[in-house]
Amino acid sequence: MQSLLWVSGGTGFIFLMTCFGSAMVFFFRNQTGRLIQTIFLGFAAGIMISASVFGLLVPAIETAESNGGIGWIPAACGFLLGVLFLLALDHLIPHLHPGTNTQEGVSTSMKRTTLLVSAVTLHNIPEGMAVGLSFALAAQHQGDPALYASAAALAIGIGIQNFPEGAAISLPLRQEGLKIGTSFFLGCLSGITEPLFGLLMVVLAGFIEPAMPWLLAFAAGAMLYVVVEELIPEAHLGEHSNFGTMAVMGGFVIMMILDVALG
Predict the structure, then answer these.
(1) Is 36:238 a contact under the CB 8 Å cutoff?
(2) CA-based Rg of the chain, rounded to a whole angstrom?
(3) CA-CA distance, 171 to 257, in Å (whole number)?
(4) Exposure winner among 72, 124, 191, 197, fewest CB in 10 A?
(5) What is the pLDDT of residues 193-207, one digit of tens each?
(6) pLDDT-wise least confident of 33-42, 73-82, 158-167, 250-259
(7) Which of 106-110, 217-221, 226-230 is most confident?
(8) CA nearest neighbour of 167 among 15, 27, 22
(9) Residues of 75-100 as b/e, b for ≥16 C-beta within 10 angstroms?
(10) What does the DSSP 8-state code read for residue 231?
């Protein structure tokens, strides 16, 4: 029960940050400039890379070794399974990324606005999984407060990058002709998978505790798939690629500091 409360707070926070970002549609009529988008995307990528390594893969290896196993086996295999999971979703779920006209996934007649929301919703899944598993791991080792601090750092880091992510969906929806209130609501709705999958991971972890290293690495692989497939390529479109690169580095360092300082 305690782990459910913790993960509800953690995933609730990152969902709330998505809503705060979506609220930018009330203040800006048009989409933010390309340079700002590049910086935001790069920053989000840096945070997710750092979170995947320090918040998920390292604990996966350490947990496996503390259980008497070989650390790299569940870390590597779970990581690849996470990548394959997101790859499969990318090919199965119809979606459309902001700034593009090419539909991905199974062919469908759904509206363009629905496909835009679907893209962000799809890629929010591993973020909810990551936060849920981090708090589940802490609950399994209640004598180690550093794990709770590390899980909180992960939630804070993902929450920070969710702010521009929320704006990145509500503003394009507004440009597509939707009302401001509808754009805000759909921007928030895109983050609903985070608390749902966070709670799901806590429930699963309670039943299959020995699989925790695999689950942590699975979430890491899913997150890095999003980074490499979407965030970094989009951050390096156009003439401001250096800004995107520096934003990636900045996000990585901030998340690393959060994890080390709070952990």
Answers:
(1) no
(2) 18
(3) 31
(4) 72
(5) 889 988 888 888 777
(6) 33-42
(7) 217-221
(8) 22
(9) bbebbebbbebbeebbeebbbbbbee
(10) I
